[in-house]
Amino acid sequence: MGKKDHLTIDKEVVQVIGRELLDWYYRNRRDLPWRKNQDPYKIWVSEIMLQQTRVDTVIPYFQRFIEQFPTLDDLAQAPEEQVIKAWEGLGYYSRVKNLHAAVKEVSAKYGSQVPDDLETISKLKGVGPYTAGAILSIAFNKKAPAVDGNVMRVFSRLFALTDDIALASTRKKMEHIALQVIPNNVPGDFNQALMELGALICTPSSPQCLFCPLRSVCNAYAEGIEEELPRKKKAKPPKQMKMVMLWLSQGQRALIEKRPDEGLLAGMWGLPTIQVAEEESMQEAHLFCDKNGLNVTNIKVAGKFEHIFSHQHWKVTVIQGEVSEWASPLPSSWSWMTADQVNEKPFSNVYRKALQLFI
DNA sequence: TAATCGTGGAT
DNA sequence: TATCCAAGATT
Fold it and tell me: Which residues form the signal peptide (predicted)?
């Protein structure tokens, strides 16, 4: 068992970082809604929402979510569809399902008290290494690393590290560095200060080094390579996919489909959707309807649009038709919906785009 | 390790 | 327009 040699940070540098960064943070931190108090539940919600999501996007969702579910038990007791609805449009919907499940577990097993130790909190659904450290440090003042993309970018530049930040092993290395740098008295503030610096000064492109409180100890700045760091492997372009969404109406109602519990947009509602070989394929649309026992007339293209997920690029054709007769029962995931019900059920944005054509 | 999982803003 | 990527977790 060879012991990995980790980077050791000079003690005087640690002193400078702690002093200068905290001083900067206390003068420049943003007034964000989840910084009003240290309620572990609210910190938790904010950290889940902020995963891969911009602060400006999260703020209104956070406000509404906390207004709707002020306490952990309010959330634990709420029906799942209502909780998902509150997340509608935020994306990465497994986050909210995991959060809901984890909150129910905390309510049932831990007396509604968010665990304050790494072992227990890390077992909660949706709580990974970053989120665990963030909650422990921010809500409970515990010394724990909270290494997100900001922190990896700041450390990469500060210590001129060329590790690929897309690798999981790099995050562990960064956590080891964080533990050396985080002060014992204000770990939560310090972790937030690192992220705040990454968000406001040490930005991915055009970092504002002249305004950086850590400029005097930054290796990348000294070497003039701040724009070259961090190093990160390029992502694959999204897979091109041709899709058909169906608006199958009968009088004042239309068929909607609840998506499977796993995979893309799990648990969200949508229109019946198929992947097709050819764009605007009426033939494949007809075949799909036949297969599900539907007799459809007046079928035609209602509209087209594109939607890009992180890993899929959909070219969507929306095809509408009128259902004249159908074999019962309909597929169990299908349901008739009237126009006034559109805003009651959670639809992801890609389906909102399609629904706009009709409502 | 690499793929999966949303959306929208910035460059 | 294309690409990146934003307080990541899960498998």
Answer: none
Contact (Cβ atoms closer than 8 angstroms) between residue A127 and residue A135: yes
Tokens of A111: 């007396």
Task: Return the pLDDT at A61.
Answer: 98
User: Which CATH architecture is the domain A239-355 placed in?
Assistant: Alpha-Beta Complex (3.90)
**A318-353: per-residue pLDDT in tens?**
999 999 999 989 999 999 999 899 999 999 999 999
pLDDT tens figures, A159-193: 999 999 999 999 999 999 999 999 999 999 999 99
| A334 membership: H or E segment, kind and range | strand A334-338
Q: Which residues contact A90 (CB under 8 A, 6 or more apart)?
A: A49, A53, A57, A58, A61, A96
Q: Would you call A68 helix, strand, or coil by DSSP?
A: helix
Residues near strand B (C-beta below 7 A) are A 52-54, 56-57, 89-94, 167-169, 205-206, 236, 239, 263-266, 307-312, 348-350
Enumerate the CATH 3.90.79.10 domain ranges in chain A, comma separated: 239-355
Residue A354 has pLDDT above 60, yes or no: yes
A21: its two tokens: 């960064």
Catalytic-labelled residue, pool A47, A88, A175, A226: A47
- Is strand C in 7 Å reach of the CB of A236? no
In the CATH scheme, what is the homologous superfamily, with its name and number, of domain A11-228?
A: Hypothetical protein; domain 2 (1.10.340.30)
Compute the mean pLDDT over every residue in chain A, rounded to the nearest whole number: 96
Interaxial angle between packed helices A187-200 and A168-181, expressed in degrees from 0 to 180 and rounded to the nearest 10: 120
Q: How many CB atoms lie within 10 A of CB A75?
A: 25
Secondary structure of residue A320 in the 3-state scheme: strand
Distance CA A128, CA A343 (A): 33
